[in-house]
Prior knowledge:
The protein has helices at residues 9-15, 19-37, 50-62, 64-78, 82-91, 94-107, 114-121, 126-132, 135-140, 143-156, 166-170, 174-189, 196-204. The protein is an all-alpha fold.
Amino acid sequence: MTQTAPWTRKEVEARLADDTARAWLGEALAEAARAAQAPPTPPSPYTAHTWELRFAAAGRHCGQDNADAVRTLLLTQARAGLDTLTRLYRQGSAAERRAVLRALPSLVEGPHAVHLLDDALRTNDTRLVSAAVGPYAAAHLDPHAWRHAVLKCLFTGVPLDDVADLERRARGDGELARMLADYAAERTAAGRDIPRDLDRVLTLTGEKPQRPQEL
Length: 215
């Protein structure tokens, strides 16, 4: 079952700086709604719906701080399908990719968009990694991939507070506990600090850290 969008139109409008930005958002959402009602057309690399052009321009018209929310709202309003989401992700900037990842729980039912998470988790862009470990990952990443996503957060410095449903998925996970212990041992052997979050998630697995806090 898909989830509700992370931001409502009212919440996004309240964040915008002025009436010009709000008017631009209204026009963009109207275009997205019309696209959602239009008959499907074969995908083409040479054409794009006008709302997709708005998707790319959201930061310029609504401010970079609001771009994630605006883009996610546009995707939801357009009821973007998996093909569209994949294309926008593949062709988009890091910021546009982040918005696609954040919209997945609202638009994709089932694990069909896991390939986008896999791509984001292969990067060292902390913004993409953070977006990739949200509710969609909690619901659809298999245990092996999810464990490696947790380790990726530790490796890149993404706070584990960003990992959706961490407590439920980590609870009683002996394999995750083993991987965390191995990672801590490698860091210690290399003379590197142990991330604070590591002991926290190790405790969630049911294992007690066997060493003093490093930080």
